TrEMBL record:
Site (Could be important to modulate the pK values of the two catalytic cysteine residues): 162, 211
Protein name: Diaminopimelate epimerase
UniProt keyword terms in alphabetical order: Amino-acid biosynthesis, Cytoplasm, Isomerase, Lysine biosynthesis
Family: Belongs to the diaminopimelate epimerase family.
GO molecular function term, any single one: diaminopimelate epimerase activity
SUBUNIT field: Homodimer.
Encoding gene (name): dapF
């Protein structure tokens, strides 16, 4: 199987061009290729497929084999792949995902895609639709007990569920201990991605993320969007926010009039290869 290793600010996936390749049992394949010792090494597997309703289709699988609905860093790399490898010659494209069709604008540098702006769609705030079990319609700055400690969380879905909590020190957080406690908490029926956030100023925050099915990753695009929405809802930032992640920065803008979230960031090709299945 031919593949391409790509990353969006450190959030790395193995990409397969399913216009040419066929991948059987993708969940099992995701586990195999994601292993950083015996496989290629990645946060998961993303298949780039033909679509009847868009320029292409993204099908993503986490490192544990579970299928995800959307990946903000991954979809930027899908757009870069489609342009750089000649699937499309357009600089504004559409990509079908499990959470709907996303629209992307590509910035070209020296004939290759440099950065991608993604219309990530409308944030979902209704608790039952995220989903999160709550007596309230929305979960904004609400208390939850996790591992014997009270945390304040705001819950947002950007096609997948996120719980955002604000802390004073993200660098020294023992995320490998608390992350799984959040991910598998009983109030999250589909598990949850958790963002631990420190507000730097009205236009800048830093975050670490524990992703369901993958553990801590260097970046999470949908998570950065959820953090921006949460920060605005809680009155902590303006509507345009730079989110600093371990792998780099993402610029997020929540257009309150359109009620759409826009994410701009880089996409990088690491290498092409073949793996014997």
């Amino acid at each position: 199987m031919k593949f391409t290793k790509m990353h969006g600010i450190g959030n790395d996936y193995v990409y397969v061009n399913c216009f040419k390749e066929t991948v059987e049992h993708p969940s099992e394949m995701a586990i195999k290729v994601s292993d950083r010792h015996f496989g290629i090494g990645s946060d998961g597997l993303i298949l780039i497929k033909p679509s009847e309703v868009a320029d292409g289709k993204m099908e993503m699988y986490n490192a544990d084999g579970s299928q995800g609905a959307m990946c903000g860093n991954g979809i930027r790399c899908v757009a870069k792949y489609m342009y750089d490898y000649g699937i499309t010659d357009k600089t504004s494209i559409s990509v079908e995902t499990k959470s709907g069709i996303k629209y992307l604008d590509l910035t070209i540098k020296d004939g290759k895609v440099d950065t991608v702006k993604v219309n990530m769609g409308t944030p979902i705030l209704k608790a039952v639709d995220i989903p999160v079990r709550s007596e309230k319609e929305k979960v904004i700055d609400e208390s939850v007990m996790v591992d014997g400690k009270e945390w304040k969380i705001t819950c947002v879905s950007m096609g997948n569920p996120h719980a955002i909590t604000y802390i004073d020190d993200v660098k020294n957080l023992e995320i490998e201990k608390i992350g799984p406690k959040f991910e598998n908490h009983e109030i999250f029926p589909d598990r949850v991605n958790t963002e631990f956030v420190r507000v730097i100023d009205r236009n800048t925050v830093e975050m670490r993320v524990w992703e369901r099915g993958s553990g801590e990753t260097l970046a999470c695009g949908t998570g950065a969007c959820a953090v921006a929405v949460s920060s605005i809802l809680n009155g902590l930032t303006e509507e345009e926010v730079t989110v600093k992640l371990l792998g780099g920065d993402l610029k997020i803008f929540w257009d309150r009039i359109e009620n759409k979230v826009y994410m701009t960031g880089s996409a990088t090709t690491v290498f092409d290869g073949e793996i014997d299945l």
